[in-house]
Amino acid sequence: xxxxxxxxxxxxxxxxxxxxxxxxxxxxxxxxxxxxxxxxxxxxxxxxxxxxxxxxxxxxxxxxxxxxxxxxxxxxxxxxxxxxxxxxxxxxxxxxxxxxxxxxxxxxxxxxxxxxxxxxxxxxxxxxxxxxxxxxxxxxxxxxxxxxxxxxxxxxxxxxxxxxxxxxxxxxxxxxxxxxxxxxxxxxxxxxxxxxxxxxxxxxxxxxxxxxxxxxxxxxxxxxxxxxxxxxxxxxxxxxxxxxxxxxxxxxxxxxxxxxxxxxxxxxxxxxxxxxxxxxxxxxxxxxxxxxxxxxxxxxxxxxxxxxxxxxxxxxxxxxxxxxxxxxxxxxxxxxxxxxxxxxxxxxxxxxxxxxxxxxxxxxxxxxxxxxxxxxxxxxxxxxxxxxxxxxxxxxxxxxxxxxxxxxxxxxxxxxxxxxxxxxxxxxxxxxxxxxxxxxxxxxxxxxxxxxxxxxxxxxxxxxxxxxxxxxxxxxxxxxxxxxxxxxxxxxxxxxxxxxxxxxxxxxxxxxxxxxxxxxxxxxxxxxxxxxxxxxxxxxxxxxxxxxxxxxxxxxxxxxxxxxxxxxxxxxxxxxxxxxxxx
Length: 583
Prior knowledge:
The chain crosses the membrane at residues 437-460. By secondary structure, the chain is α+β, with helices and mostly antiparallel strands. It is 20% helix and 34% strand.
């Protein structure tokens, strides 16, 4: 019995030793066992996504109630049962073996291994390293170099220009199938680097180039309280990365099976992920929606229009809201020294895959260089910080341009001198018309003010005469009270329901009511059998109007409908109201 207990204890100790953050040579993890990063942020083990029965080796958040997988090893070759094991070899590789001891997945490494071990870091990075060497430059292999659909803090999203390593996201096929789906999200190195979402080989979204502060097509990307971001671009590397401002925040960037690049943040209070931001925000983010030389304006109808000096290539298609053919120049371009440039402001820069970048030139030099090259169609600063620097030239057609209300960018498109002159005349004419309109408007406004002043004085004089006449002849007195119609009072008091009845005075009942704008009122309904006629009605109004006290209610108006006569007061639930209405 003691031997059995000792054996159980030994196996328990072995189980605990497996549940740390490191695996050594020939150590295995079987289905049902996991290792956890030192800080308890991430866990590695076997799992089945959603309704699938297939088994995969993956990494997920340890502290998140809803299992959220951020990386999958054998995403293309799943296990069909729970017989799989994960193992570290003496060659410094991680392998997944199935029930027949066949390798179905392996990490790759060309570096020599000495005392290799695998460690799950608190960043979510699974690394293969030699002994205790924690220098990331010396890692034999790391999962951060081979992301799946998720970008985590600290990951490099882009290319190593020396080794050719390309770190990009590829979507899951479905939510229960982590195999490579239809969409990829990667940094395109052509011209000025930009991020592209592709469905197969077809571009569906483009971030625009980095401008020193953000990607041109990400106006919403700005300093925030959740994460810091950066774009590294030098001879060795080009990549986007982000780091957490607060280490307790859990956030991830995911490429969904539908091709949306979205950032989610975990909220402990609700126990759920919330969408923090999305690369694609509206229809204008659909790649080249308006075709070449078309510009998308999301708040206009239709959304697409041709740039100045251009017209639809096929007007009939544009009439059918098919803008994909884009626009052509209204006047064919002839390359001449007299050519100039038309400035566009507040836009997403055109596709830069056919562009040229020089970071040392200024804007004036950039314009001169573009003008001398007949193939150059547009130019701008590559970096907008500090007043602008660098030179970005476009060659060929311009596409995927959209307008922004904020954080857009300027660029300059090549135009013939005759067109620029025509634009200048139109602009001058518009300015002249605007100036004339301002003058006419000013005169009209002054005239209206004077007319209003005269009318006001006239009305005041008439009121004085009426008040004077009222003192001499009460029958001709005009109270000038706001007049409420009966339907308004019926709706406000619920047809004079007993529930709204406040009480009954000498000349009739009083009801509480509420107008459609939410204002509470008290309605004194004069009894049809009472002797209070028009004189009493007027006297009460005159009496109230002469009393000015903060504890007395305000008379809002009256209602006269046939034999019905009512006074409408501002409702105040205090004794002053009761005394005044019932007294």
